[in-house]
Amino acid sequence: MRIATDIGGTFTDLVYVNDAGEIGVAKSDTTPGQFEQGVLDVIRRSGVNPYHIDDFIHGTTVIINALTERKGAKTGLITTKGFRDVLEIARGNRPDLFNVRYLKPAPFVPRHLRLEVSERLDYTGVVVSPLASAELKAAVQRLKAEGVEAVAISFLHAYTNPAHEQEALQLIAEWWPEVQITASHEISQEWREYERTNTAVLNSYVKPTAAAYIDHMEQRLTAEGVNGRRYVMQSNAGMTSFRQAKLTPIQMVESGPVAGIFGAAILGKWIGEENIIAFDIGGTTAKCSLIDKGEVKVTTDYKIEQNERNAGYPVKVPVVDIVEIGTGGGSIAWIDEGGSLRVGPKSAGALPGPVAYGRGGQAPTTTDANLLTGRLSLDNFASPASMETVRQAIEEQIATPFGLSADEAALGILRIANSNMLNALKLVSVRRGYDPRDFTLIAFGGGGPLHAAALARELGVRKVVVPFASSVFSAWGMLMTDLRKDHIQTYIRRIERLDLAELNGILAQIQESGLQAYLDEGLRREDIAWVRYADMRYLGQEHTVKVIMPEEDLTAALLAELSSQFHEIHEREYTFRLEGVPVEIVNLHVSIIGSVRKPAPKPLAGHGSDASDAHTGTRPVLFDEANWLNTPVYNRNKLQPGNEIEGPAIVEEPSSSVVVYPGQRLAMDGYGNLIIETEVHSR
Amino acid sequence: MTTGSMIDPFTREIVKDSLVAIGEEMFYSLARTSMSPIIYEVLDFASGLTDAKGQLLTQGNGVTGFIGMLTFMVKNTLDKFGPEGLHPGDVIILNDPYGGGGSHLSDVGLVMPIFHEGELVAFAANKAHWTEVGGKDPGSWTTDSTEIYQEGLQFPTIKLFNKGEINQALIDLIEANVRFPNLSLGDMWAQIAGLRTGERRFGELCSKYGKQTVQASIDFLLDHGEQVSRQQLSLLPAGVYEAEDEVEDDGFGNGPFPVRVKVTITADEFICDFRGSHPQVKGPMNASYTALVSSVRTIFLAVTNPSQDVNDGVFRPLRVITDRKSILSAERPAAVSTYWESMQFGAELVWKALAPVIPDRLNAGHLLSVCGIILSGVHPVTQEPYLIVEPSVGGWGAGSDMDGLAGQFCIGDGETYNVPVEVAEARYGIRVDEYSLTADGAGAGEFRGGSGVIRTYRTLSDGHSFSGTFGRHEIVPWGLNGGLAGSGNVIEIRKADGRQVQQLGICARVPLDQGDVVRLITATGGGYGNPLLRPADKVLADWKDGYISLEQARDLYGLVIDPATGHLEQITAARAALG
After folding, report:
1. What is the pLDDT of residue B38?
2. Residue B5 confidence (pLDDT)
3. What percent of chain A stands above pLDDT 90?
4. Are A550 and A629 in the same domain?
5. What distance in Å separates the CA atoms of residue B58 and residue B159, rounded to the nearest whole number?
6. DSSP state at residue A396
7. Contact at 8 Å (CB) between B16 and B105?
8. Using CB atoms, which residue from A123, A337, A542 is nearest to B422?
């Protein structure tokens, strides 16, 4: 038995798969302050016997919350002499260009807790001056006296030679064993001192929080008899042990959202689609990510609190490449000073929520527009407002200023929301040189099923999948993950000057250390695999493109092949290639994956195409160009594998619904996924 | 979805948003493929779309300094060729500072006409700082040129592509005349890629919605921009406001040169009159009229609505008046290579004139200067020539409810990134000894000015050359409403023998040998409000963090601190007198 639990803002979700390959789900309330309680509640509710749990996988927002709510530890920084202000100067950029009252993100460590010690390496890693241990000792005493709970160490060029950081780590551990420490090279082996320093600082900042959280969870699980292997979901779409998660908690920062993306990749494999656009519409945002030939893209360009007006804080850890926009179900529709209709980024949230929720919300949202146009029904909400109240909100705030009817205004809100989402979808596909016609859209989250079919049509996607576990899809993704560690090492070499023996040696060393770590955790050699990449660019460029390297040792011939792949990807993404310009490797990237045994899924047999048993009635729905259509409504829970439905149709779920447009066709497959064939024709 | 001219407001809105998205896509396409740090780190470029008449529709910006310059480029192209002289596949190249280019020769503009069903419907344009365009000094811009002919290649609005056919002679000419042809031509291709993206996306938009709908949306976009501006304008206090300042030095020891503005705000106009400013000067600190207008646009946006989409409609209420041939409206063949030192006064003067009346929108003075440097030489390990061309971060002024920011690029820059120390050391083979805040305690106030920084370069071999221009060297950032002035920008050169230390605001081609050091010290911003009113807990924290000294706490803020405990020991009479 393998179970995954995912703590979200409102609900704690659980998905399990038993040894027979049967999948089950459960939900219970999230219990802030005592998150482990929600986890135990949901296990109880699922009916799973705790003693039968072999693998327990967990995703949580506790790290991102500690960061955004500034509830981490009092943290000190020890850095190279002359550079303590790097954390405050940051990169000096001002994304809000014309705002002369821009607020720069304040560093997580104030100046008096940023201390310097003499030590210096040059850019090749050669020691210029040794670590002054007396200064280090003085710094430690000062931080102790200030009541610091966690320390980050970040020295210049530690990405290429961590010797001084290791020495400092050892000394501090000796002098001050109870303090939580992070050295920058433990988290990131990439150049750029501000980004690496900030990452080390944030890791230390959340370390005590993570340790307390995981320890509590561990105790409670043990007490309940959950004694199997325990894992935490990381932002790189893989999982790691509880022990490792306490050391590098910053790796958990996006564990929930990335699990959904990963789930889409796995689901794609089940249903034979390896080119996927994963699309997750929540209450305040929509997130999307592109999966190319089954591969989830991972980058280290992640930032927290970044938006078009704020520089945010860089976190140089591998995170699944997700584009997020501020349009979701709760996004508020409003008219700006110039008379333009906008949807989001302000959200009504869960409280008061959309007008339809009947909890006092006054501002019309995407959800309200979905209700007024018949896509949702009042039954989707626990204690809804009246339809008249919803209509009135849209009428007064949107329709009247434009001189339109409430229906037209509601449709307008949906079109603007869709246009925002479409831009995000284009950002991950068309704008990176991919043709959406080669992709399948997997839509989940509360809003995914409502908007997916319309977006697919606009984007030119032929097939939409609303997964069987769409309401607990992140937990389902976690259930399907393997152990994964990404090692990214800055290694700047021109292709034509590359020392192949050195390169192969470094790669072998990275693989060996990853392999050993997993063997130590009890994995079998044959379950450990790796994928190797090179981040490459034309000499002089800054940004890189990721190219997969062959599995075997590199030879001159394989290198030439690598180069030609680089030219190709560069041309796809950026429209041109520069054959004459030298090509450079910047980073080596090795993903080490430790596969864990997962029960195989069991597709159900077909029940024929007749869906009439699930038909519950009809209601008018306002489709874009076709006006109000009397539309058949189905209950998703009563659909059987093999059932088919012609659009227009609505398939209702408890808190959402799947909208099928005229001309589209929906079918349920053997896993319970809903597959919509759009009217888009193949090339 | 739409028929005839009856376009529903949402389609219009969606097309408008699509245009903005196209602008962004063009912008990132260029940034990600450029070869030069000045483009991909400093983002010293702009790109966007105009309509067929050259009205700016959308502009992606890395720096504020180019705001609206694309319009001038396209209008210059139309003036020269006329619509009939332009064809699908054409790309025009230009950098004439006094005409369509607007800044200096290093900023090379490309313009591509976009056709739909045989008709000219729009232009894609971009303008990017090439690391090299030739001229007398490496990096092309210099602090002691006296006429434009010393500043590099001039591209007088000529065709780089003719009906899709590249003008190879021109490429060869560029290759022969610039010091790092790979960089310059690489950037050129990045620019072309950006334009092609714009052309393709605009075509898709026309195909999807029809030309008529797109045109109607464009009109709406421009009118919408104008409407937002006028509405914001009506919230400003009408009146006439004046300010004066000085450009310090032209690189030849001449100066200072007075500059002035009279800002007239009425219900529907924002007029900036710079007449009476000093005539154009011998050195390269002259700005053309286009540059001045761009700078004024920056502050116009800051005081009206900094968060809105930018297009030509937004600027309809703005008028900029100058004399001819002034330091703010130079004409051929005036040297303009460090034009930004005077151009920035377009924004600064308006800022200074209006800050006292709208302190909720404008803070005290900031470092103002780009603090640009050029360091060149040979990498001691790779033996390859290198070239650093970069701006510096410094302190910003405090405001009515905020301390000033430390270590930010000036108003003329923007989404500009400093070069990481680890990257600089690897790429250039120099050593950075220090990158820290000056924490000089200048800019005292109830709200404190933000600290400038110190960045120290040490050369590890012989034969390097350094040029820099740090305006606001002696005339420091101004305080507001009783806040004290900040400190100045300083280039400090220390020779390895220890005997010679120079502090300068401007210098050209200073030779540096092994062990020589250049310390780049930038200004702390001006303070806001009487320092004696700063709450004691903030002053104690400032001292503890080392932003102010014990003496400053006592003399400026009126608080005597016990350095042993960090506790407040005594309140001075001056502070007590304020209650």
Report:
1. 67
2. 39
3. 81
4. no
5. 24
6. I
7. no
8. A123
Burial of A18 (0-12, 13-18, 19+ CB in 10 A): middle
- In a mutational test of the B interface, the residue from A340, A373, A497, A577 whose CB has the highest number of chain B CBs within 10 Å is A340
Give A 529-588 residues with CB within 8 A of chain B.
538-543, 573-576, 578, 581
- Asked if B434 lies within 8 A of A340 by C-beta distance, the reply is no
Same domain, A57 and A16: yes
**Cα distance between residue B496 and residue B499, in whole Å:** 8
User: Within a 10 A sphere around the Cβ of B79, how many other Cβ atoms?
Assistant: 12
Which whole-number Å values give the CA distances from B530 to B336, B448, B481, in the listed order? 40, 10, 7
Chain A residues whose CB is inside 8 A of the B432 CB are 82
Of B21, B299, B418, which has the smallest distance from its Cβ to A423's Cβ?
A: B21
3-state secondary structure of A332: strand
**How confident is the model over B463-521, as pLDDT tens digits?**
999 999 999 999 999 999 999 999 999 999 999 988 778 999 999 999 999 999 999 99
In a domain, residue A468? The reply is no
The predicted-structure confidence for A591-606, as pLDDT tens digits, reads as follows: 999 998 887 777 888 8
Q: What is the DSSP string of B119-163?
A: EEEEEEEEEEE-S---SSSTTS--SS--BGGGS-----SEEEEET
Whether residues A147 and A87 fall in one domain: yes
Of A224, A252, A280, the residue that ends a domain is A252
In a domain, A535, yes or no: yes
Q: Are residues A205 and A218 in the same domain?
A: no
- Exposure class string for B217-244: b at 16+ Cβ within 10 A, else e: bbebbbebbbbbbbebbeebeeeebebe
CB A249 within 8 A of CB A206: yes
Does residue A590 share a domain with residue A510? yes
Query: Are the beta carbons of A337 and B399 separated by less than 8 Å?
Result: no
Q: Nearest-CA residue of chain A relative to B359?
A: A101
Question: 84-143 in B: which are within 8 Å (CB) of A?
Answer: none
DSSP 8-state secondary structure symbol assigned to residue A673: -
Residue A29 pLDDT: 87
The answer to the question of residue A398 being in a domain is: no
ipTM: 0.94
Cβ pairs bridging A and B (under 8 Å): 209
- Identify the residue among A79, A100, A398, A411 best suited for mutation to test binding to B, counting B beta carbons within 10 A and taking the highest: A100
Same domain, A580 and A492: yes
Residues A20 and A95 in one domain: no
CB-nearest to B13 from A94, A340, A625 is A340
Residues A80 and A203 in one domain: yes
Hunting for tokens 């200096």 — which residue is that? B104
Separation of alpha carbons A119 and B233, rounded Å: 55
- Tally the domains of chain A: 4
The Cα of B54 is separated from the nearest Cα of chain A by a number of Å equal to 23
Picking from B7, B43, B408, B456 by the largest number of A CB atoms within 10 A of its own CB, the best residue to mutate is B408
Nearest CA to A444 among A638, A668, A289? A289
> How far apart are the C-alpha atoms of A209 and B285, rounded to whole Å?
55
Interface test with B, best of A79, A86, A88, A97 (most B CBs within 10 A): A97
Strands A674-677 and A463-466: antiparallel
User: Is residue A407 over pLDDT 70?
Assistant: yes
Contacts of A100 in chain B (CB under 8 A): 299, 302, 306, 351, 361-363, 366, 396, 411
Is residue A121 one of the residues assigned to a domain?
yes
CA A677 to chain centre: 27
CATH code of the domain containing A159: 3.40.1360
Residue A629 is part of which domain span?
A: 612-677
Torsion of the alpha carbons at B95, B101, B103 and B107, rounded to the nearest 10: -40
Q: What is the mean pLDDT of residues B57-82?
A: 89
- The answer to whether residue B234 neighbours chain A at the CB level (below 8 Å) is no
